[in-house]
Each structure stands twice: as C-alpha cells, then as structure tokens.
Amino acid sequence: MNYFGESIAIVVAVSWTITALFAEVASKRLGSLQLNVIRMVLSLFMLSVALFFSLWQFLANWYRF
C-alpha cells in the first residue's frame, strides 16, 4: 500500500465527477427546486442515521450545547 492516499484521492475525484454528471441530468429532468428538496431530505435522513449509530439518538439535542 505505497500509494494508499493517492489512490483514495483519485477515487474521490472520480466519484465527485460522476456525482456532478448525475446531478446535471437530474436537474434537467426534475428542475433545480425539486432536486434540491430531494437532496435536503436525503441529507437529513443520512445525517439522522449517522447520528443514531454514533450517539444513539435520531436528532441532535442542540439545547445541550
């Protein structure tokens, strides 16, 4: 694993490129507003799952901070 960091960087760059291409196609089909609403809902879901597995709660308790 001599070039592990470089390999990860190339994979990340390729995945960002693929994501940008998919976002372009989706925005042409759905429109920017609908695409952004879907993206935000999916982001909230993924963040909630990540919080659940890391802190054992679905939404953060912002009043504690």
Q: Can you give a write-up of this model?
A:
With about 60 residues, this protein is mainly α. It folds into two domains: about 1-30; about 40-65, no CATH class. It is built from two helices and no strands. The protein has helices at about 5-30, 30-55. It is flat. The relative contact order is 0.06.
Q: What amount of the residues lies in strands?
A: under 5%
Strand tally: 0
Structural class: mainly alpha
Distance between the first and last residues' Cα: 41 Å
Cα-based radius of gyration, to the nearest Å: 17 Å
Query: Percent of residues in helical segments?
Result: over 70%
List the helices and strands and how they pair.
Layout (H helix, E strand, L loop, with lengths): L3 H27 L1 H24 L10
Helix pairs in contact: 1-2
Compact description:
With 65 residues, the protein is an all-alpha fold. The chain contains two helices and no strands.
Descriptive labels:
65 residues, mainly alpha, 2 helices
